[in-house]
Design goal:
Elements (H helix, E strand, L loop, with lengths): L1 E6 L3 E7 L19 E6 L6 H14 L9 E6 L2 H14 L5 E2 L9 E2 L9 H14 L3 E6 L2 E7 L4 E9 L1 H11 L19 H28 L6 E4 L3 H5 L7 E2 L3 H13 L1
Parallel strand pairs: 1-4, 4-5, 6-9, 7-10, 10-11
Antiparallel strand pairs: 1-2, 2-3, 7-8, 8-9
Helix pairs in contact: 1-2, 3-7
């Protein structure tokens, strides 16, 4: 089995792939396969390797899995300060050294970024998954702490994209800078024209955000010359946006984990 870890600024998403009767200990043939089990943890930069190791062992045990059955591990991280902790964590519970996605990782995509070293590992991993499962051209929208959009051409070229503040970040910034505005739940009102401040905030944040998504997707499709290309959404806020946006084709909560499994297959 393969342990895949996507370490983000707010959450660490991890999942186990492979195993079972047809895939005893390998990741072979994992394109599009759902993880056997996945978890979402809060990113805690102050946690020690021992604390994370205990937590990982508890999660595996609760799922009826054993650490000794894991034959490989791969990590995509956008939090450099936690990388050493994660590596130490896995060294305590596994007998294999994890692969880190970074420069030199074989992706199968041609990276057309000005400086590929500036490209977040999670963005390229999600693009790998989307292209392998849906072909190209395709757009990936990742709704996390930041919302990022990535474009992949029909030839398998990662063309670039754009990055926006995440919905929760935008809401926190508004509440912290406006004395008379407070934090609100992401519960969209039935009307855009609100009659009270709470609904007004919810309307502006959620429907305004959806409008931003639809505009950016339309511009990206136009620049790609692919007006009907699919948009695959992932990340914690993907469902909220996709339910109300015609721009999103599909929501895949485990898209990045699936991409990690594919990259392990290419590089492991």
């Amino acid at each position: 089995m393969i342990l895949c870890i996507d370490a983000g600024n707010t959450n660490i998403k991890c999942g186990v792939f492979g195993g079972g009767e047809s895939l005893p200990q390998s990741s072979r043939g994992l394109i599009g396969e759902e993880p056997r089990k996945s978890w979402r943890l809060a990113t805690d930069k102050s946690a020690t390797a021992d604390q994370y190791a205990m937590l990982f062992l508890q999660l595996l045990a609760h799922a009826g899995l054993r650490a000794e059955d894991i034959s490989g591990a791969i990590i995509a991280s956008v939090v450099p300060t936690i990388n050493n902790t994660l590596e130490q964590t896995l060294s305590k519970i596994l007998t294999v050294k994890p692969l880190f996605v970074g420069p030199g990782t074989k992706t199968g995509l041609a990276i057309r970024y000005d400086d590929p070293r500036q490209l977040g590992a999670d963005r390229i991993v999600s693009a790998v998954a989307a292209y392998n499962m849906h072909g190209g051209p395709v757009i990936v929208a990742d709704f996390g702490t930041a919302t990022s959009f990535g474009a992949v051409s029909a030839k398998g070229e990662f063309l670039g994209g754009c990055i926006c503040p995440g919905l929760a970040v935008a809401a926190d910034a508004l509440a912290s800078r406006a004395a008379r505005l407070t934090a609100v739940d992401f519960d969209p009102p039935s009307r855009v024209i609100a009659r009270n401040t709470v609904n007004g905030l919810q309307s502006g944040l959620i429907y305004g955000y959806i409008g931003q998504v639809e505009y950016l997707v339309a511009r990206m499709r136009g620049e790609m010359g692919a007006p009907g290309c699919p948009v695959i959404a992932t990340g914690g806020m993907a469902g909220l946006v996709a339910e109300r946006s015609e721009a999103i084709t599909e929501v895949d909560p485990d898209l990045t984990l699936k991409g990690l499994a594919m990259l392990f297959e290419k590089n492991g």
